[in-house]
Design goal:
Chain lengths: 280, 295
Amino acid sequence: MQAPLPPVPPPQTVPPAAIARTIVDARNVTLTYQTADKPVYALSDVSLKINKGDFISLIGPSGCGKTTLMRTIADLEQPTSGEIIVNGMTPEAARLKRAYGYVFQAPALYPWRSVERNVTLPLEIMGMPAAERQQRARDHLEMVGLAGFEKKFPWQLSGGMQQRVSIARALAFEPDLLLMDEPFGALDEITRDHLNLQLTRLWLQTQKTCIFVTHSIAEAVFLSTRIVVMSPRPGKILDVIDCEQHLPRERTLDIRETPEFAHIAQRVREGLMEGHSYDD
Amino acid sequence: MMTERLRTHLLPVAVMALAVLALWYAGALWLNAPQVLDGFARAHTDHWTLSEFARQAFSQKRPILPTPDQIASEMVQSLTGYPVTHVRNLLFHTAVTAGSALTGFGMGVVLGILLAIGIVQVKTLESSLLPWVITSQTIPVLAIAPMVVVILGNIGFSGLLPKAVISMYLCFFPITIGMVKGLRSADPLSLDLMRTYSANGQQTFWLLRLPSALPYLFTSLKIAVAASVVGAIVAELPTGGQAGLGARLLSGSYYGQTVQIWSALVMSALLSVSLVWLIGLMERFVVTGKRGGTR
């Protein structure tokens, strides 16, 4: 005889309304560095909500705290006050759970490891079996257009290719959140266009949430669903521009010629000017 | 192609070698001149030609500076004239010295690396241990070698071990210093990367710190292996040993056998060079990928 089953508790995963759920929630984040002579105010009262599937660009002049904000989300820096929630956890818990992949300004590949073994590095740390991590590396290298380069060493690759390897490495353990700190800053414009196109496709295909730091207005407008304009010290958010109202999610390089694109770019530029980014 | 290689590679090498040889022979002529003149005076030879003078200067039995060909023929005679196990064969002495040098080198590598890991991993060791490591190298090895031999002899160790300990004493220092620098050479970005993977200390050590230290380690190993030969030879002097290049140097100087001394010197140089070369060979297998230039 069977006892009636107790009512099933509602599953914790994805109630339909939570499709646009918040992945990163920064509330009144302030970060002050104590230097020898005077404190440096890197971030001042920054609040920002980032939803799942968003592509957010942080734009602003050098030293405006955009990298600091991202490093704070990644738990590489700790805020002086305020709170950040990443994936419903503290940034530290999120880091320990490997909730995000980080792409640095430089590729930061390990020169003694082949391309493939660079991509498998995080998988090795997670303790994934060798055969599986090799397959993962191959898949992700193919995704960034580097199939066939597995056995090469980083120095045999161009700067753009090295940065693609580092993107494959960040994607390899399939985090929900991808943090990219000026990944294409050191590359020439042609390579940059090409990688931007590849990145926007990758983002659509993998449905990841991306946070992207850049100085380039065109890059920010081309890639983002929302653009966060920041002012220099103390780093503050001046404007948040919603691009999705004007531009489709799926983008090609031609959209850069449209009036909508120019309009958003103009608004970003105005925002930067308002923050006196064009002083001196 | 071939002539290009000849011009850029072989020619400078040949010119340099010839210059060294010419200087050497000139030196022999100059330094052995008093002996030769003395000989002429004793034999009442008043009229001698320059070529006769040179021939005499280059073939003294106990020259102040023997010529390269004298040393070469002494070495060939020693290496081919006796079985390898014979005390008159230089290879026998080289093997004895190499044995204690390599034992000491091995001990020095272990000690040096362990000290470096300790200094890097434990903050307080840097201020408490490093000064002792540095002080140890300010004492001349010639001063400490007899002490080590006496102390170890007193507690029942003789033969290879005291010599190896002195080699180790010279070896571990460059390894510790190089390895400390190497273990700290990982750039901040690579360390941040490890943090984003929430790698633990051990994983960071094995996957990042150790591999980035290897080029530094091998540079230190080359210095250390050459120092280990010096250590072994110095250690052979106070032991009054019957075997080893040091013993050979000592007996040569007792009897004024300068050719024998120089042969032993050349042999020790050859030994060091081949050991350094071996380390370089190992480096090529162990240190994969081209270092530098990529980040």
